[in-house]
Amino acid sequence: MNDFDFLIGTWDVHNRALDRAFVGSDTWHEFPGISTCHTAFDGAGNFDEIVFPTKGKRGLTLRLFNPATKEWSLYWASSTDGILGPPVIGAYRDGRGEFFGDDLNDGHPVQVRYIWSDITANSARWEQAYWDVAKQFWETNWIMELTRRSA
Q: pTM for the full model?
């Protein structure tokens, strides 16, 4: 239930986002972020706000653990629309978290996958990918490399 305890605190985030999904793009945009994560429910939940200073927007993630299923539900909201999206649901196995759900890409429904990996006390990696039905593969479209801020 404490899988996301490593995330509590403040992080510098190097973001790389694919220009457009499903069009064969290899153009990536890089931009900074600062994320601060707080615990909830004695480790069975947490939430963070990420600020994208060069983009003029923010995001919020809410993570909740279901003790009955031993799975996490992760919800994303953006300051651009203020809507809490549907969850991606999954779990950690061998230090790697995989979470799956439904999302929208340019207004079209897609399957989405989040992966948390390379987790240490001072760094972590998150990535988002969409499922390409036609090509039958996951196309990674957003990567965050997190580095813990020192006190």
A: 0.93
